Amino acid sequence: MTAARVTPEPAAEPHGTGVGPRARRRGGGPLRPAWSGPLGLYQPGTSPLHRAPAAGKLLALAVSGLAVVLVRGPLSAAVALGVAVLAHVVAGLHWHRTRRGLTGFAVVALVVGVYQTWARGWAVGFETAADLLALVLLATVVTATTRADDLLDAVRRAARPLRHVGLAPETVALAISLMLRSVPVLVHAAAQSRDAARARGLERSPRAVVVPAAVRMVGHARATGEALAARGLGEDVSPAERARGRGED
């Protein structure tokens, strides 16, 4: 039996150290990471939050999200945002990395807050924007202080009850792992397509950016699927059937 040949898609640069095509600033300035978003950007440290178990941090994040939804008012939103900022300070994270990753979310929170202020008053507008920023910042702190392996182990343990409905916890953890890995790959593909379109003078054409990025992501998805199939992952095959297949080989 010959193993499936997998042609891997060029992967995104490692988080925090990789350099994308536009990493160097104009004028020969310092390099910056190709992807500095809030997902999966682990920052090593020795803070209490770094030493806390991943399951406890995920539970605290879930409770915080529930509290933000149930407790209403601008004062509670301000307290939630203050707690998120305090958690970031206690973790000893770098604000410049967090700021780059949260810029897009801050713009969305600002737009939603302005709309809610116009429609329902300043109190609701402030509450909405502060709640969004607080939740995103708390999630950023959790991912920045937790290694990906520890995070996925906690998810796998939490998903054990799903065995009773026929869903393996390992499958859930694998799906989340692939999702987190696909985010920087998607950003890297979009950056490559945007730079290629700019080089051809087509930076204002959405098609020149979206189509190549979509092709790159489809290629990445196919390579990932072939790699999983070559390792026998994702197949709904019982142990008895797998053993029988080995005997036939």
Automatic annotation (TrEMBL):
Entry keyword Membrane: yes
UniProt topology in membrane: Multi-pass membrane protein
The organism's place on the tree of life at top rank: Bacteria
Keywords on record: Membrane, Transmembrane, Transmembrane helix
One Pfam family, short name: CbiQ
The keyword ATP-binding is assigned to this record: no
Bilayer-crossing regions: 77-95, 102-123
Primary localisation category: membrane
Protein name per its UniProtKB record: Cobalt ABC transporter permease
Organism: Cellulomonas persica
